[in-house]
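Exercise: predict the fold of this chain.
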Amino acid sequence: QVQLVESGGGLVQAGGSLRLSCAASGRSFSTYSIGWFRQAPGKEREYVGAASWSGGSPYNYYAGSVKGRFTISRDNAKNTVYLQMNSLKPEDTAVYYCAAIARWYGLDRRDEYQYWGQGTQVTVSS
Protein backbone atom coordinates (compact mmCIF):
# COMPACT_ATOMS: atom_id res chain seq x y z
CA GLN A 1 0.00 0.00 0.00
CA VAL A 2 1.28 3.46 -0.92
CA GLN A 3 -0.23 6.78 0.10
CA LEU A 4 0.62 9.84 -1.97
CA VAL A 5 0.23 13.51 -1.09
CA GLU A 6 0.89 16.31 -3.56
CA SER A 7 1.77 19.84 -2.57
CA GLY A 8 3.22 23.00 -4.06
CA GLY A 9 0.46 24.10 -6.39
CA GLY A 10 -0.67 27.69 -6.66
CA LEU A 11 -1.17 30.70 -8.90
CA VAL A 12 1.70 31.89 -11.06
CA GLN A 13 2.09 34.22 -14.01
CA ALA A 14 2.96 32.92 -17.44
CA GLY A 15 6.70 32.36 -17.70
CA GLY A 16 6.99 31.63 -14.01
CA SER A 17 7.94 28.48 -12.15
CA LEU A 18 6.50 26.14 -9.55
CA ARG A 19 7.78 23.00 -7.90
CA LEU A 20 5.34 20.29 -6.98
CA SER A 21 6.12 17.60 -4.46
CA CYS A 22 4.71 14.11 -4.18
CA ALA A 23 5.36 12.63 -0.76
CA ALA A 24 4.84 8.91 -0.41
CA SER A 25 4.31 6.75 2.63
CA GLY A 26 4.39 3.02 2.76
CA ARG A 27 6.97 0.38 2.24
CA SER A 28 9.19 -0.26 -0.77
CA PHE A 29 8.84 3.21 -2.25
CA SER A 30 11.89 2.69 -4.43
CA THR A 31 10.23 -0.25 -6.18
CA TYR A 32 7.49 2.01 -7.55
CA SER A 33 7.62 4.30 -10.51
CA ILE A 34 5.91 7.63 -9.93
CA GLY A 35 3.96 9.30 -12.68
CA TRP A 36 2.70 12.85 -12.94
CA PHE A 37 -0.61 13.56 -14.63
CA ARG A 38 -2.78 16.63 -15.01
CA GLN A 39 -6.40 17.31 -15.68
CA ALA A 40 -7.76 20.58 -17.00
CA PRO A 41 -11.47 21.41 -16.74
CA GLY A 42 -13.47 19.49 -19.31
CA LYS A 43 -10.49 17.43 -20.42
CA GLU A 44 -9.21 13.96 -19.74
CA ARG A 45 -6.39 13.37 -17.32
CA GLU A 46 -3.18 13.41 -19.32
CA TYR A 47 0.31 12.09 -18.78
CA VAL A 48 2.99 14.65 -17.91
CA GLY A 49 5.97 12.47 -17.08
CA ALA A 50 7.32 9.78 -14.80
CA ALA A 51 10.28 8.79 -12.69
CA SER A 52 11.41 5.22 -12.33
CA TRP A 53 14.27 3.58 -10.51
CA SER A 54 15.89 0.55 -12.07
CA GLY A 55 19.19 -1.12 -11.37
CA GLY A 56 20.15 1.62 -8.97
CA SER A 57 19.74 4.35 -11.58
CA PRO A 58 16.98 6.91 -12.06
CA TYR A 59 15.11 7.23 -15.33
CA ASN A 60 12.83 10.15 -16.15
CA TYR A 61 10.36 10.47 -18.97
CA TYR A 62 8.33 13.41 -20.26
CA ALA A 63 5.36 14.11 -22.48
CA GLY A 64 6.21 16.13 -25.54
CA SER A 65 4.16 19.11 -24.37
CA VAL A 66 6.36 19.64 -21.30
CA LYS A 67 9.74 18.34 -22.40
CA GLY A 68 12.41 20.95 -21.90
CA ARG A 69 10.26 22.92 -19.46
CA PHE A 70 9.46 20.39 -16.73
CA THR A 71 11.96 18.31 -14.77
CA ILE A 72 11.24 15.34 -12.55
CA SER A 73 13.54 14.40 -9.74
CA ARG A 74 13.33 11.75 -7.08
CA ASP A 75 14.68 11.50 -3.56
CA ASN A 76 14.25 7.94 -2.37
CA ALA A 77 15.64 8.80 1.06
CA LYS A 78 12.77 11.24 1.55
CA ASN A 79 10.21 9.14 -0.33
CA THR A 80 9.48 12.18 -2.45
CA VAL A 81 9.28 12.93 -6.15
CA TYR A 82 9.40 16.49 -7.43
CA LEU A 83 8.05 18.13 -10.57
CA GLN A 84 9.89 21.35 -11.35
CA MET A 85 7.84 23.37 -13.81
CA ASN A 86 9.50 26.26 -15.61
CA SER A 87 8.34 28.59 -18.38
CA LEU A 88 4.75 27.91 -17.43
CA LYS A 89 2.00 28.65 -19.90
CA PRO A 90 -1.72 29.26 -19.35
CA GLU A 91 -2.39 25.90 -21.00
CA ASP A 92 -0.50 24.24 -18.14
CA THR A 93 -3.38 25.18 -15.85
CA ALA A 94 -4.78 21.98 -14.36
CA VAL A 95 -5.03 19.84 -11.28
CA TYR A 96 -1.79 17.90 -11.06
CA TYR A 97 -1.72 14.38 -9.69
CA CYS A 98 1.03 11.97 -8.84
CA ALA A 99 0.47 8.24 -9.03
CA ALA A 100 2.42 5.08 -8.27
CA ILE A 101 2.84 1.93 -10.31
CA ALA A 102 4.91 -1.14 -9.44
CA ARG A 103 6.83 -1.42 -12.68
CA TRP A 104 9.27 0.55 -14.84
CA TYR A 105 7.65 0.35 -18.28
CA GLY A 106 4.44 1.66 -19.83
CA LEU A 107 4.49 4.60 -17.48
CA ASP A 108 2.18 6.69 -19.67
CA ARG A 109 -0.70 4.25 -19.22
CA ARG A 110 -2.86 6.26 -16.86
CA ASP A 111 -5.46 3.61 -16.10
CA GLU A 112 -2.86 1.08 -14.95
CA TYR A 113 -1.56 3.11 -12.03
CA GLN A 114 -2.40 1.59 -8.69
CA TYR A 115 -2.27 4.53 -6.28
CA TRP A 116 -3.16 8.19 -6.69
CA GLY A 117 -2.77 11.37 -4.70
CA GLN A 118 -5.55 13.87 -4.19
CA GLY A 119 -4.16 16.43 -6.62
CA THR A 120 -2.93 20.01 -6.36
CA GLN A 121 -4.20 22.95 -8.39
CA VAL A 122 -1.86 24.85 -10.67
CA THR A 123 -3.17 28.03 -12.27
CA VAL A 124 -1.11 29.99 -14.77
CA SER A 125 -2.36 33.47 -15.56
CA SER A 126 -1.63 35.21 -18.85
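Check your answer against the key: The chain has a mean pLDDT of 94.
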